[in-house]
Each structure stands twice: as C-alpha cells, then as structure tokens.
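Sanity check

After download, print the first record. It should look like this:
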Amino acid sequence: MSIFSFHQFATRSALLLSLGLAVGACDKAIDVEPRNAVSSSTGYATKEDAAAGLLGAYDAVQSTDYQGVGYSSMVELIAGNITHVGTYNTTYGYAGQNLLLPDNVQISNTWNIIYDGINRVNYLLEQSENITDPAFPKLTTQGEARALRAYHYMNLLSAWGGSENGYGYDGGAGVPLRLTATTAVGEQTAPIARASEADVAAAIRADLDFAITNLTGNSGTRITRNAALALRARFELQMRKYEDALKYAKQVVSVPTDFAGAALTGTTAPDAIWQVAFSNTDQNFYAFYWYPSPGGRNEFNPGQSLVSAHPAGDKRLAINAATSPAGTTLKYTRTATRDDPFNAVRYAEVVLTIAEAAARTGDLATATTQLNVIRKRAGLANTQATTANDLVADILLQRRLELAYEGIYWFDLRRTNTVQQALPTYTQTFRNLFPLPQREVNLSNKLTAQNTGY
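Expected structure tokens:
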C-alpha cells in the first residue's frame, strides 16, 4: 500500500485521544465513522486493519507540527541555521531568538502531535496481539511500530530532556513515558510524572532492538532494519556511548559505490535511508515557508552563520543557500505540489557517525577515511586534521553542512555542550531545554514538573 495514502487511512488507527502528559477532555477523531474506520470499541480484527493502523501511525510524523515543517524548523531556527524573516513572530520568531515560553503555541502543538503518534503506536501494538490470521506479518508490523515509538521518544528527549550540559548525565530529565494506549477518559488519562532520562533511554533501546531483530531492508519510505540501526547509532552518539554508536552504525548495510555521486540534497538513493514522503494531497509546508510568493510566504532564510561556515569550493553551499531565488534552499523546492520528502535518516549521517565515534574511541584512521568520504562528495580536499580533537571538530562541521535543515545541528550543540560557545548570546543555559507546554503542567497540578528556569 502506498505511503501516500496515509491521510486516507489515518482514521483506521482507532484513536479517540491525542494526549501528551495530561488530557482534560476527550476529542473524537471523527464524529461520523466512515466505512473504512475502526472504533476503539471494535478494535482491529484483520491484517488489513493493522496495515491501515500502521499507516495511521506513520501519518502522525507527516503532521505540519512535526516533520511536515514544525519540529525540525524550530530546532534549526534556535541553532541559527535558519533565520526567521516572516510574520510568525510569536511562534517561529521566538524560536529563532531562543525565547520559547511554555505558552508558545508551536511548542504545545508539536508536543501534542508527538504524543498522538505514540498513542497510535501503542494502540496498534495492543490490537495486533488479537489478530490470529496466519498471514498477518505481526513481528514486522510491530517492528515498524516500535521503531516509530522509539523515534518519537528520541525526539521528545532531544528537545525536552537531558540536562543543560547535554545528554546521558546523572539526573537527566526525561519525559512522560506512556507505553500503553489511551482510548477512554479516566484512569488512562490520569497525569503521570516525568520518567527519568535513563528510563526513557531504556525504552528507546528496547524498541529499537526489537525493530532491528524483526525488520529487513535497506531504505524506503517505511522504517527498515537499516533505518532502525541508524537510529540506534544516532541515539548512542547523542548519549555519548561512542563504542555503541560505532557498533550500530557499522551494521548499516553499505550503500553502492555511487554514494559519492548521489544528489547533495540527500533526497535520492542510496543516501536516503528513511524518507518521510508527502504528496500533492498529503502536503508538507517546507517549500511554502522557504520560498516567496507565488507558492510560498518566505518565512525562512538561510542563517548567515551557516552560509559563512562553508569552506571555499563546498558544493553544498548552493544547496543550503540557493541564489535563485535568493534566500532559499534546494532541499525543499516544490511550492506547487508541496511534496518534498523529509530526510529522517540518511547514509551520510551514518558515515559521519562512524567517523566521530571512531575519533572519540581512538581509531583515527577510520575517522579520517570516513570523514574524507563526505568531504570528497562535497568537492573538498581531504581533511588536514591529524588529532582526535581536530578530527571531531571537522566532523561536527561536516554534520552541520551536510545535514542542514534536517533538525540535527541543535542537538549536536547540546550533546557536545557547545550551545553557549557557538551561540554566545544564549546566556540563559536553562533554555538549552525546551519548556514543557504550560497546559500539561497545569492539568497535572504540577505532578509533571516544568523544566527548571521556565
């Protein structure tokens, strides 16, 4: 079934609630149940129900407030890769100044859609246990679903969790950990305290391990084994578990030798491992926010610090800061159809993960070789770095330039504890973590604690 059918089948995910930490009311997903809908009181009875439910789970990622533009654009604005030049001053404008507050609408919307996605997965996992059809691919269905749940919690933890100096430190803040479905107001919707960062990390690892064991495949618009391995490597790098990051990244199936010739936008095989796909009827808003009229509203421009960071001769400059029209990017261009894919996982990131993890664990030869793969592809000469520290610095620069506008750089700054060094005007270190939506804190009677400082 085509991934472009997400919205058509989303109602079959049988969700009654879109919840985060606390929910004050029951919002029906639909008022009149269409023929292809399955209510939570009926549940999933067939493999077709589960297949549609899985599409509904993927559909959450496509939301405008998630990877349809909101989540990654917010963190790129905060990191300075994007400059806000539009009129959404109280949402994206505040993000661009790192002045997000708990009552910011975009913060609330993004938090809610991620938890909505988690709830869709939880419901699918529970209901899939009831399907007895021997033709039902239960383990692969659950593998994709659990990888999605891990992806959601990775994104929640990246933005709202950890500590001011990074991730994986004692006492790091987590997020509410919900691993069972919510289908009715009552005990299921009762507020819960935030789990520790360590507990959320354990859940992420368990989900990804299950996915790695039960999935196959290298790339596509659905999560494959390769994508699950790459996500695990990303997570271990963020948690500063460099040996583990190297172990998982090395298991990602090598791409063909034509990787060096793949489009620098990262949107084509063999670079694209997992792309969130969109269509003319299932649109995203990236090009709309980047491009001027007609077709867009030009809210975003390339950040000047990003533009200046490109070395002479870097082919990625023309991608990250297009000149026709000025102030745009070639990563998102389809203003008419709004169906640019979003790169959730790329092989270029895996190469750079191997390089960094190798450098941090003393294998400078591997680090140098992998770094030069990316540099050569970008039209640059081999690195001149010879020490571990210099190699890591070059690798981090290449990550910024290679993965621009893909929601990575801010979390690189956080995990390396260099936010204040890279962005010296950000003197309030508590803002290295996003604020929880104020409604979540209020409805829980502060059982769910706000991040310190807000």
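If your output differs, re-run the checksum step. Summary of this record's structure: The two ends are 45 Å apart (CA to CA).
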